[in-house]
Amino acid sequence: MTGTAFLTESGLSDWLVRLARQTRLMAPTKRGRRSFAFAWVDDPREVAIDYVRTILPPKQAFLPAREKLLDFRLRPVQESTPAIEDEPFVLFGIHPCDLAAVGQLDWAMTSRHSVPDPHYIARRKAGAIIGVECQPDEYCFCTSVGTSGTREGADLFLTPAKGGFLAEVLTPRGEELLQAAPSVRDASPEERAAGEGWADEKQKRCTCRLVGEMAEWPDRLEARYESEVWDRTAGRCYSCGTCTNVCPTCFCFDVWDEVNIGLTAGTRQRRYDSCQLQDFALVAGPHNFRGERTDRVRHRWLRKFVYLMREYGKPFCVGCGRCTTACTADISLTDVLNAALAETEESAS
Fold first, then answer.
1. Confidence grade of residue 346 (pLDDT, cut at 50, 70, 90)
2. Global pTM?
């Protein structure tokens, strides 16, 4: 079956049961009263499809917070064995903004540098992605950064409709997955038309917006390098790194070795790192290129909307709102960005 199909609500439940039996399944699950998180699930009844955002992004499926890179032996001979994970799995329930984030990670981990990351690539090839349409809240600004309608990267994409879901088949892998779904049929013209209404609804719900023209943001922000906005924001920031930990597009990591007590063997591991931590830019000397909090705060905004945006061609932010909702100091990414952009308007007038 190709094109757009219709999957009933009961059919979706039965389908998830089949998927969980056939392969590993990562999906959004409820945590507590109001929070949601992507997790490996054995019981499809745990899957929560009606959510706004998860605490952590689904990038953990491809770039875990902590992972082993290789095992090594120092004696009697030096040798190493890469720890590549390539077991197939399905990532279910990912929203358009997080789909866009996966695309940005694909670029960062495979194309930005001359040596693509083999660990990321192995997981990326092993994972099939099923996206789901969302309903934004007051913290979402996907419409401002052009990610609200993202489909690229998904094998299948579901849009809620009366009595079930429209299923867009986007790749041969997605078609193969959908063939295992019960109670599926071709969507009617009326059902397809109802699904197209989600785009307008999302525009109405996204009340959080960035000002100005996207193409102008890098030059305008760079012109405000010495802005007091960064000092004011740094005065509230705790340098805890929460914002980067929950970000779906941040990809900085630290690498270290753990050696056994006999100094004969060990493992090399990596974990997420954060440009907001005090020692992130510490080098030999010792010298810290961003030892001041203002420098670290400014770097975060300029990296997303100046440096990487110029390399990638789009903001390296997908408008999910996670950093704002998770910030312990209640700092809003959009408020800070808009304040800096507003200063450029004032200086030009």
1. low
2. 0.93
